[in-house]
Amino acid sequence: MPSTKVQMHMQYFLALVIIVIIIICALWINTFQPRWLLPLKNMNASASISKLDPGNGEVSSSSPLNTTRVVRRKWSVLLVYTGFFGQQEWFRITEDCKSPQLNGSCSKDLFNVTYDKGRFLESDYVLFHGRDMPSTSHMRMIWKKKPSSQFWIYFLEESPRATPDTRPLNGMFDITMTYRVDSDIWQPYGSYVEIPLKDQKNVLQEDFSVGKTKLVSWMVSNCNPQLRKLFVHELQKYIAVDVFGSCSREFGQPKSCPKESCKDIIKKYKFYLSFENALCKDYITEKYWSHLGDENIVPVVMGGADYSKLAIPGSYINVLDFKTVKDLAEYLHYLDKNITAYNEYFKWRKRYRMGGDWSVLCQFCKKGSSLTGLQLKHNQDLSDFWVRQGKCDEKDQLVRKMWTAHSSVVYLLILMTLILITILVIALIIIYYTQIYKVT
């Protein structure tokens, strides 16, 4: 009989220990969020590459391999091989480059842009959009026919997290054209230049807070990235944030911002959350650049880029400049009450203006109209450049700590308490069974 009781008590004991271990593990995961739990899609948004029907003009299977061409013309043929999110004739060079640095020497006539795949072998450059890539088998087929003097361009404005798997493309591309500063051809979402001193005008003593009756706005339609949503949920504990777009329902406020009147709605706010959907190296999108106009609003940015080097100085508030989300909210409240401090964020307009010579044509011409002098990364490892060097996970934890760091002590105390309780329970059970065995 005692042995049966011992077995029953042992079962209770084991069940209790398992429950305590599960609770401890759950709290640990919630607190520290180990990297191995992150979804694999963060590294590659898709495990396969979308297919594109090559259509008429496909490269003939009888074409000679690695044909070396002797080019005797003064202009270059640029074949646009893919569409752009389904749009076919999307890439054009319509005017000469207006960069003063090139002294008018960069003419649109230097390039003959074509969409005719039948001109593949005569093309100097072949441009592919990373989100509209042909199938892997098709890419391998035309790769075998690529003339040795031909350059392939990988063009993309999306982040690595929203990019099809680049591994099948390793060794195929010679030129990268992306928002990354270290691309062969830099193609940012926006840029700025310093206004010459002689053209700088005194900024009017305008109060940019006039007419602004609300504090923080955010427009979001891509509901998948969780980090920025968690951040906003935390921010709403300390300051009012009005959310617009298809994701607004997740915040209990189904608000819309019609295209024709959205700018007038945004004008009523002092701050706008320019939060990127991925915190990747150099990734600053229109979420920042498009809100520097006559809305007279201060962008609050969150991204993986070095804003001090790529964004307009004095035009933004970076969430990573604050220790906690609460600190950020308190600073926004401070600016709301201090008109002088708020207006400091508009003084950049005296010294800088948006724009520059970052057109595709200017970028080509800066490298040399035929790119012959450019040290290209022939057969480069695209995955290494785009995914590993893209560093999309580097700053995620820094952002998470802005609202989890202050609760870590609480979680630690809870864990320590659970451990002590477990030890106490084990000790009591041992004492109990010791007494039972003495009796038996």
Automatic annotation (TrEMBL):
Membrane topology: Single-pass type II membrane protein
Residues spanning the membrane: 12-32, 409-433
SUPFAM superfamilies per record: UDP-Glycosyltransferase/glycogen phosphorylase (SSF53756)
Annotated localization: Golgi apparatus membrane; Golgi apparatus, Golgi stack membrane
One Pfam family per UniProt: Glyco_tran_10_N
Protein's UniProt keywords contain Electron transport: no
EC class (word): transferase
InterPro entries reported for this sequence: Glyco_tran_10_C (IPR055270), Glyco_tran_10_N (IPR031481), Glyco_trans_10 (IPR001503), GT10-like_C_sf (IPR038577)
Coiled coil: none
Domain of life per record: Eukaryota
Keywords carried by this UniProt record: Glycoprotein, Glycosyltransferase, Golgi apparatus, Membrane, Signal-anchor, Transferase, Transmembrane, Transmembrane helix
PANTHER family xrefs: ALPHA-(1,3)-FUCOSYLTRANSFERASE C-RELATED
Protein name, UniProt field: Fucosyltransferase
Species, as recorded: Porites lobata
